[in-house]
Design brief:
Elements lengths: L5 H9 L6 H5 L2 H19 L3 H19 L1 E3 L4 E2 L4 E2 L6 E3 L4 E2 L4 E2 L3 E5 L9 E2 L4 E2 L4 E4 L2 E2 L4 E2 L4 E2 L7 E4 L4 E5 L2
Parallel strand pairs: 1-4, 2-5, 3-6, 4-7, 5-8, 6-9, 7-10, 8-11, 9-12, 10-13, 12-14
Antiparallel strand pairs: 14-15
Length: 176
């Protein structure tokens, strides 16, 4: 079973300095992130039965998602070090997506599945960064150490160490 990575997320957001945690706790995005981590933990603990248990907490869940503008499916598996900047622009991540560690997004991001494509095979690697309003429509595979530019629309798989941008997103540069 995966760990409860909320503390690693806070450590990344504060740069490892505990003095910065007070302003962070005053942001709604922190509570949206915490809600995702709690829901994911409960889903891993209870499995398919969690969807029935979730009904009891739905008013709290939807209120926090609405106030934080963060809606991440509890079925999504995101590694430690998740960083969300400018969550007031919104963040939507669909279900059954595997995202590696140190994932960061700026806001206005949507990661979801094209309903005309078969489900499954959706993986985002470690150290991936999404610019403002970047959209990923899958299922796709995105390698490690990838930077996706602002307002890019990713509809096909991306190799590791790439910088991509545009609509549809194309490789602009390969990192060394």
């Amino acid at each position: 079973m995966n760990n409860f990575y909320f503390w690693e997320d806070l450590k990344k957001a504060t740069g490892g300095r505990s003095i910065n945690i007070i302003p962070l706790m005053l942001q709604w995005s922190t509570y949206g992130l915490l809600m995702y981590r709690i829901e994911n933990f409960l889903f891993l603990l209870f499995g398919r039965r969690y969807k029935y248990l979730r009904i009891l907490f739905l008013p709290v869940i939807t209120t926090i998602q609405g106030l934080s503008n963060i809606a991440i499916s509890y079925k999504t598996n995101i590694g430690p070090g998740l960083s969300i900047s400018h969550a007031n622009m919104g963040l939507e991540i669909g279900s059954d997506i595997v995202i590696g560690s140190n994932f960061s997004c700026v806001g206005g991001n949507v990661i979801g599945r094209n309903l005309e494509r078969p489900a499954g095979g959706y993986k985002i690697g470690d150290n991936v960064s999404l610019g403002a309003n970047a959209v990923v429509i899958g299922p796709v595979t995105i390698g490690d150490n990838v930077t996706i530019g602002a307002m890019a629309c990713v509809v096909s798989s991306i190799d590791s160490k790439s910088i991509v941008g545009g609509v549809p997103a194309k490789v602009i540069k390969i990192k060394e």
